[in-house]
Design a protein that fits this description.
Layout lengths: L5 H6 L22 E7 L4 H13 L23 E7 L4 E8 L5 E4 L7 H4 L13 E11 L2 E14 L2 E13 L3 H5 L4 E4 L13 H7 L7 E6 L9 E5 L7 E9 L7 E4 L2 E3 L2 E2 L7 E5 L6 E3 L1 H11 L7 H19 L4 H7 L28 H18 L4 H13 L9 E2 L10 E5 L2 E5 L1 H4 E6 L2 E6 L1 E3 L9 E4 L1 H6 E6 L4 E7 L1
Parallel strand pairs: 3-8, 4-7, 15-23, 16-22
Antiparallel strand pairs: 1-2, 1-10, 2-3, 2-6, 4-8, 5-6, 6-7, 9-10, 9-24, 11-25, 12-15, 13-14, 13-18, 16-23, 17-21, 18-19, 20-21, 24-25
Helix pairs in contact: 6-10, 7-9, 7-10, 8-9, 9-10
Length: about 500
């Protein structure tokens, strides 16, 4: 959800939350360190269906969100980790998602009269707060099928036992999206950078820093992946809890401010490269995304390796059948992989310019080559090139590509796997800062409750962003649950260590 997020919104499958009125407990560890307990609910099929609706509505977002008062938000509907904050004096409590993929704090306003979503959630009443200060600047947060309209106000925000004075936040007055009716949270507390904040409102961590409320300019997430544990985890402002991680953190610099974006390397299946990110990809650490979202070409390989049931793509199989041998021969002849699909006539863009004659495109280069056949061809090139490195025979290479076509992720989102096969699935690993971060099958397979039974789904979702912004991965709660994550805004870096 993303802001610039056609990107993040398009493929992240976050979960709509179950209704929660629990008050987050927090324990200050001396001056400048604040703990906020995170709550969570079990994932179920109903929540997943609600998330699909939200994702479809937000699927066209990305774009530039620099300046102005309109910016798309990230895939905020899908997180399962939440807490309660208080706004005003005395505090009015709101259940919020702590989202590193957005930067604003917003909650429904008592002045929201014509949206069903507002009546289903707690609403902020400025008249009942003695510390309220009017701002009045209007704003709009855009989505693929609608928008949220509201205005800015200022008031004290209680996070645990910490009072942030005069925080600028949004009171929403219109929430027409079905997403907000289905979502059981009241609002969002964004923890991204100011660069993607609507109306230049400082994210709450920046306000904490400016008011000298923190011992250190960091916050850290520990997400408890044990479904039977009473606590969902802990968010610590101003430091880290050594009991929440093992060993030392590996830090990587933020490569692009806005989201917590950094450069990563390859994704490995049982130690073998998947090829697509062998020369590096961008990644975003996003607490507001439940799963892992990445390039379709890699997700299809993952699904094939773990036996996930995808939807048969006739276009993909047709490309492999009719053009697979031609693609193979061009790659053997050392043809630039980016130009293979344009040379065989399936793409209009060869990686550097349009190859169509006499036709001037009115869309950006990033949108060229998005035709289904072109996309299938580009994926086939990645798969075939990767198998060539393994010195496989032509028959085995084309057979492998055809099998991957059958494992393409479902357009509706999740790919299911057999729960009794989890122990036989391979380890998967991301390379970050030249170190390997492994995910075991128990960590990347997500279990859902459906009709009293357990359904297992792949923790990987397809998500394609072309250069120069992409290829891009969204490392959501599946990854952050396995690896304790430090967001160091003082040094503009992100740290990962094994969760304890």
């Amino acid at each position: 959800m993303m802001r610039h997020r056609q990107l993040l919104l398009a493929t992240t499958c976050l979960w709509a939350l179950s209704c929660a009125s629990l008050l987050s407990s927090s324990t200050p560890d001396g001056a400048g360190l604040l703990r906020v307990s995170l709550n969570k609910n079990r994932l179920n099929r109903e929540a997943l269906t609600a998330a699909k609706v939200a994702r479809k509505q937000d699927s066209r977002l990305l774009g530039a969100a620099n300046g102005g008062d309109e910016i798309p938000l990230v895939d905020y509907l899908n997180t399962q980790y939440f807490g309660v904050v208080g706004i005003g004096t005395p505090p009015q409590n709101f259940t919020v998602i702590f989202d590193t993929g957005s930067s604003n704090l917003w909650v429904p306003s008592s002045k929201c009269y014509f949206s069903i979503a507002c009546y289903l959630h707690h609403r902020y009443k400025s008249a009942k707060s003695s510390t309220y200060k009017a701002d009045g600047e209007t704003c709009k947060i855009s989505y693929g099928s609608g928008s949220i309209v509201g205005f800015f106000s200022k008031d004290n925000v209680l996070v645990g036992d910490l009072v942030v004075k005069g925080q600028k936040f949004i009171e929403t007055t219109r929430e027409p999206s079905v997403s907000f009716i289905l979502g059981k949270f009241d609002g969002i507390l964004g923890l991204g950078y100011p660069e993607i904040s609507v109306g230049k409102a400082p994210p709450i961590w920046q306000s904490m820093q400016e008011q000298k409320l923190l011992a250190d300019s960091v916050f850290s997430f520990w997400l408890n992946r044990n479904p039977d544990a009473p606590s969902g985890g802990e968010l610590v402002f101003g430091g880290v809890d050594p009991e929440h991680f093992k060993g030392e953190h590996t830090y990587v610099p933020v490569s692009r401010k806005g989201y917590w974006q950094f450069n990563m390397g390859d994704l490995l299946i049982d130690g073998h490269s998947t090829g697509f990110c062998a020369k590096g990809c961008a990644a975003i650490a996003d607490s507001g995304t439940s799963l892992l979202a990445g390039p379709t070409a890699i997700v299809a390989q993952v699904n094939h390796a773990i036996g996930a049931e995808g939807i048969l793509s006739t276009e993909c199989k047709e490309v492999v059948s009719q053009y697979g041998e031609m693609i193979l021969n061009l790659l053997i002849a050392q043809t630039d992989p980016q130009k293979v699909c344009s040379q065989i006539g399936l793409c209009m863009f060869d990686g550097s310019h349009s190859v169509s004659e006499g036709i001037e495109s009115v869309v950006g280069k990033e949108n060229l080559g998005s035709d289904v056949m072109c996309s299938a061809c580009q994926m086939a090139v990645v798969w075939i090139e990767n198998q060539l490195r393994e010195n496989k025979t032509k028959e085995l290479i084309l057979q492998y590509a055809n099998q991957l076509c059958e494992r393409l992720p479902s357009p509706n989102g999740e790919s299911t796997v057999s729960c009794n096969q989890i122990s036989k699935m391979p380890n998967l690993a991301f390379t970050i800062a030249n170190k390997t971060f492994t995910l075991t099958p128990e960590q990347y397979i997500v279990k859902l409750e459906q009709g009293g039974q357990t359904v297992c789904i792949s923790g990987f979702m397809a998500f394609d962003i072309p250069p120069p912004r992409g290829p891009l991965w969204i490392l959501g709660d599946v990854f952050m649950g396995a690896y304790h994550t430090v967001f160091d805004f003082g040094k503009d870096r992100i740290g990962f260590a094994k969760s304890a």
